[in-house]
UniProtKB/TrEMBL annotation, chain A:
UniProt similarity note: Belongs to the aconitase/IPM isomerase family. LeuC type 1 subfamily.
Protein name (Swiss-Prot/TrEMBL): 3-isopropylmalate dehydratase large subunit
Pathway: Amino-acid biosynthesis; L-leucine biosynthesis; L-leucine from 3-methyl-2-oxobutanoate: step 2/4
Keywords linked to the UniProt accession: 4Fe-4S, Amino-acid biosynthesis, Branched-chain amino acid biosynthesis, Iron, Iron-sulfur, Leucine biosynthesis, Lyase, Metal-binding
Residues noted as binding [4Fe-4S] cluster in the record, renumbered to the chain: C351, C411, C414
GO biological process: L-leucine biosynthetic process
Required cofactor names: [4Fe-4S] cluster
Automatic annotation (TrEMBL), chain B:
Sequence similarity: Belongs to the LeuD family. LeuD type 1 subfamily.
PANTHER family: 3-ISOPROPYLMALATE DEHYDRATASE SMALL SUBUNIT, 3-ISOPROPYLMALATE DEHYDRATASE SMALL SUBUNIT 2-RELATED-RELATED
Name this polypeptide is given: 3-isopropylmalate dehydratase small subunit
Organism annotation: Granulicella rosea
Function: Catalyzes the isomerization between 2-isopropylmalate and 3-isopropylmalate, via the formation of 2-isopropylmaleate.
Pathway assigned to this chain's UniProt record: Amino-acid biosynthesis; L-leucine biosynthesis; L-leucine from 3-methyl-2-oxobutanoate: step 2/4
Segments forming domain Aconitase A/isopropylmalate dehydratase small subunit swivel: 10-127
Keyword Transferase among record annotations: no
GO cellular component: 3-isopropylmalate dehydratase complex
Gene3D superfamilies in alphabetical order: Aconitase, domain 4
GO molecular function terms noted in the UniProt entry: 3-isopropylmalate dehydratase activity
Length: 475, 211
């Protein structure tokens, strides 16, 4: 028998075009997702060099980062000239190079990492890249998926490959039943808090264990999405029946005999018994609590029932400086109970938590309540299809009745590149993935939370432990 | 990327040290969607009179604006050229303007690598040699310099001759006009046969046609 292999090694080997000595390996790319912000210079590079886009059939584009989410009208006539030009450029580029584009009002449009899976473009065993760091999301299907820069975008366009040095492997196993009120978002925030924002740098992480196995595809995507926040090159989860059930019948999923053959192939994509990882970490799910960030990096986390941490005098000087700067920026004092932190805004959205299940979960908290008078709250579905599905289920009514703003799909307040931004000093409970200084607008203060915790905070006006929530039934 | 071996051109002298990438291309131009078209913004703050209402009147005394130097493909500058921010736009602006080479006593690291990715030849000469060439190009704009990459020499029409150092792999890439994409395409035949076989594995194609 051959040596046992990890899931990552299987996918890696299957995509090696050539591995020359003393040079990076050339890795074949199955799917290239493109959006408006990081692609224009790449398309231009192709033009300058007189090159073709090698595989338009392996390339799919959408608009998400820049599009306004306020109304269909605002999306069709974008006021910001720079955004508008960028989107216009993508349209022209896709036309010139024969790339399928899901434009602003197309039924397929949405955040690039949400539409890939929901259209069935994302499949187990693929290599997937996109000029956006949260491409790691697609790893939830057992794909090797990672973010790339503009020069690399051009490289993939021209050659459908990337020169890559082989990363190391890191298995994070989470076992046991999830305690009440703890979600996939809490798991990944906990992991980042534990290993640090550079804790997985140089590694591809495989998430394993019974807790991970029990998660839905939505939950698995949330976890893989934030792998990059721990510095990982990519996150992966082996495909299983839950994966196959999710993919079956999707627009670009195989059908009929082809489906059976595909499932047979995908079922091989598991880490073999006895395969060796460069690093391992075990987490007992019973120890997890609903988790929130208090500072300005996704690793600055604490339990919702805890307090803003105090300075660790044994930490390095640089870390102590970091800590103090974060407290000051967030306008928080050490020792303050997390639940006493009042918030101004709530953002339920982003490629981390804007799928249908996320909206269902937050709607269940919101039902029968009203947003606090001190809070302005918004729900931004991750895609047109999520939006349509939610409206079919009446979730939009629940949110709107409660005083939430129900918006059009896009990245929205995740990154402050479109009109959805926080005012300086505003504090937001956000289901997105980054709480860096200024990420949601200059001077913005972000607390990363799960969708249910964001919903609860919107109602109470402060960070809230969802484990004590009194759910109201539909009447 | 074009392959360059021998480059003969007049040269524009910028007799200053520590010319940083912020000067080469100011940050307000980084929002653009193109990799091309940065040439007109090259050395923006030095090239244009910013006090005039339209902000576009050229400063006659700045070397890049002088008609005598029009079409020059070589820039001569002081030491530590390209320091500061890592923006690749600096290299884009220089090549877009028409420069194919920069001669200086030393270059900043990141700029050095960015320039290489964009096919520019960066020539390190001694301070005395750079000074001499600067002087000749300043007093006589028609002064022509020849850079021979293969031979690693710089000569001019007045008997100047010097050699320069270059990393062999970088030289190989420049001589063959290879950028990263070019390097990958050395394996094109392997890629073609890999791809043909890989395409048969329909479950790895994004838009599946049922087998
Ligand atoms: S939602 Fe945020 S993280 Fe996700 S793709 Fe958009 S900007 Fe990037």
């Amino acid at each position: 028998m051959s040596t046992p292999k990890t899931l990552f090694e299987k996918v890696w080997q299957q995509h090696l075009v050539v591995a020359p000595a003393n040079e990076p390996s050339i890795l074949y790319i199955d799917l290239h997702l493109v959006h408006e912000v990081t692609s224009p210079q790449a398309f231009d590079g192709l033009r300058m060099a007189g090159r073709k886009l090698r595989r338009p059939d392996r390339t799919v584009a959408t608009v998400d980062h820049n599009v306004p989410t306020s109304s269909v009208q605002d999306r069709l006539h974008i006021l910001d000239q720079i955004s508008s030009r960028q989107i216009q450029a993508l349209r022209q580029n896709c036309k010139d190079f024969g790339v399928e584009l899901y434009d602003v009002q197309a039924p397929e449009q949405g955040i690039v990492h949400i539409i890939g899976p929901e259209l069935g473009l994302t499949k187990p065993g693929m290599t997937i890249v996109c000029g956006d760091s949260h491409t790691s999301t697609h790893g939830a299907f057992g794909a090797l998926a990672f973010g790339i820069g503009t020069s690399e975008v051009e490289h993939v366009m021209a050659t459908q490959t990337l020169p890559q040095d082989k990363p190391k492997t890191f298995r994070i196993s989470v076992d046991g039943a999830l305690p009440y009120g703890v979600t996939a978002k809490d798991i990944v925030l906990h992991i980042i808090g534990q290993i640090g924002t550079a804790g997985a740098t140089g590694y591809v992480v495989e998430y394993a264990g019974s807790t991970i196995r029990s998660l839905s595809m939505e939950g698995r995507m949330t976890i893989c999405n934030m792998s990059i926040e721990a510095g990982a090159r990519a996150g992966m989860i082996a495909p299983d029946q839950i994966t196959f059930d999710y993919l079956k019948g999707r627009r670009f999923s195989p059908a009929g005999d082809a489906w059976n053959l595909a499932v047979e192939q995908w079922s091989q994509l598991v880490t073999d018994e006895g395969a060796i990882f460069d690093r391992e970490l075990h987490i007992d799910a019973a120890t997890l609590t609903p988790t929130v960030t208090w500072g300005t990096s996704p690793g600055m986390v604490t339990g919702i029932d805890s307090t803003v941490p105090t300075l660790d005098p044994s930490a390095s000087e640089a870390d102590q400086n970091n800590f103090e700067r974060a407290l000051e920026y967030m306008a928080l004092e050490a020792g303050k109970p997390m639940q006493e932190i009042a918030i101004d805004r709530v953002f339920i959205g982003s490629c981390t938590n804007a799928r249908i299940e996320d909206l269902r979960a937050s709607a269940s908290v919101v039902r029968g309540y009203h947003v606090a008078t001190t809070v302005s709250a918004m729900v931004v579905p991750g895609s047109q299809s999520v939006k349509a599905q939610a409206e079919e289920e009446g979730l939009d009514i629940i949110f709107k009745t409660a005083g939430f703003d129900w918006r059009e799909p896009g990245c929205s307040m995740c990154l402050g590149m479109n009109p959805d931004i926080l005012a300086p000093g505003e504090r937001c409970a956000s289901t997105s993935n980054r709480n860096f200084e200024g990420r949601q607008g200059r001077g913005s203060r972000t607390h990363l939370v799960s969708p249910v915790m964001a919903a609860a905070a919107a109602i109470t006006g402060h960070l809230t432990d969802v484990r004590n929530w009194k759910f109201k039934e539909a009447n | 990327m074009i392959a360059i071996n021998v480059l003969t051109s007049t040269a524009i002298p910028l007799d200053m040290s520590n010319i940083d990438t912020d000067q080469i291309i100011p940050k307000q131009f980084l929002k653009r969607i193109e990799r091309t078209g940065y040439g007109e913004f090259l050395f923006y703050d030095w090239r244009y009179d910013l006090d005039t209402p339209d902000h576009v009147s050229e400063r006659k005394d700045f070397a890049l604006n002088k008609v005598e130097y029009k079409g020059s493909k070589i820039l001569i500058a002081g030491k530590n050229f390209g320091c500061g921010s890592s923006r690749e736009h600096a290299a884009w602006a220089l090549t877009d303007f028409g420069f194919l080479a920069v001669i200086a006593p030393s270059f900043a690291d990141i700029f050095f690598s960015n320039a290489g990715k964009n096919g520019m030849i960066l020539v390190r000469l001694s301070e005395a040699d750079v000074e001499l060439l600067t002087h000749r190009s300043t007093s006589n704009p028609a002064h022509k310099i020849t850079i021979n990459l293969e031979a690693q020499t710089v000569t001019d029409d007045q008997g100047f001759s010097a050699t320069f150092e270059i990393d062999p792999f970088r030289k190989y890439c420049l001589l063959n006009g290879l950028d990263d994409i070019g390097l990958t395409l050395r394996h094109e035949s392997e890629l073609d046969s890999y791809e043909a076989k890989h395409d048969e594995e329909f479950w790895l194609t994004p838009r599946v046609s049922a087998a």
